[in-house]
Amino acid sequence: MIVVCGIASESPVARVTAELDGLGLPYAVLHQRRFRELPFELEATGGAVRGSVTYDGRSVDCETVTGMYLRLMDWRRLPELRGADEDTVRGCRSWHSALSTWAELAPGCVMNRESAMASNMSKPHQAQLIQRHGFRVPETLVTNDPELVHEFRARHGELVYKSISGVRSVVRVLDRRALDRLPLIRYCPVQFQRHLTGTNLRVHTVGSEVFATRIDTDRVDYRYACGDGGSARLSAWQPPDDLAQRCLHLAGRLGLPLAGIDLMLADDGEVYCFEVNPCPAFSYYESQTGQPIARAVALALARG
Questions:
Q1: What is the DSSP string of 246-282?
Q2: What CA–CA distance (Å, rounded) separates 185 from 132?
Q3: Which of 72, 89, 281, 291 lies in the 20 to 30 Å Cα band around 234?
Q4: Domains in the chain and their CATH numbers?
Q5: Alpha-carbon gap, residue 48 to 243, rounded angstroms
């Protein structure tokens, strides 16, 4: 049995369940917005979880689960909690806590455990792990001191800036308008990096498989290129064997059976790694390139 956790209609979740259907594999969807309809009976002892969860009137025995795919939104932002009473909020918190405990201790293939995903909650921390495991990262400064930013810019030239947390932010160039607002960083530290030019790559690792996408764009952050008046063209790309192995090694060392690794083939001839996304929206890349990423996820879950 495979368990899929998240919002059933969201594209990555929907693609995985469609592949499970096509492969004829048994699975249960734990729709997090229906937490009140999915009671847990779990016991965590000796590093193992026993018990069951009720799904569509059926009981799923935790010990029969070979794989789990989790793509959860922050439970505190669920629509069901808007104006909810204290009991509902407490029940939602408890349900997600039980799910997290189960996923953390479950045997087999879990994509991905919360403990492994935690590295992405601090981009500066994750950057240190990325360097430690063999990739270069752009020269970086995290600060709330505008003077240090000016000194860093004098050394490295044009800069980009982004959030330091796991919350998605738009990567932008530190242009004249942004420099005028620089004193505002005194209220919130910001991450600045040397602006690299080259070709963006997104590499998805699924178990021992690698799916690489090349992105040709005229914007700094290709994810928002179209909304910014630019363009982004995605195409499947075959990475050299050594680069593919380095990506698998990095994902493995971070404890991530599923990862979205953001790279750049820079004009200076180096390969840089910006980030490792532990909950990648791979469906965007799959829909643009035809790469069978969701199928690879489904098969990895089945193998356990």
A1: HHHHHHHHTT-SEEEEEEEEETTS-EEEEEEESS--H
A2: 29
A3: 72
A4: 2-107 (no CATH), 117-135+197-290 (3.30.470.20), 140-194 (3.30.1490)
A5: 36
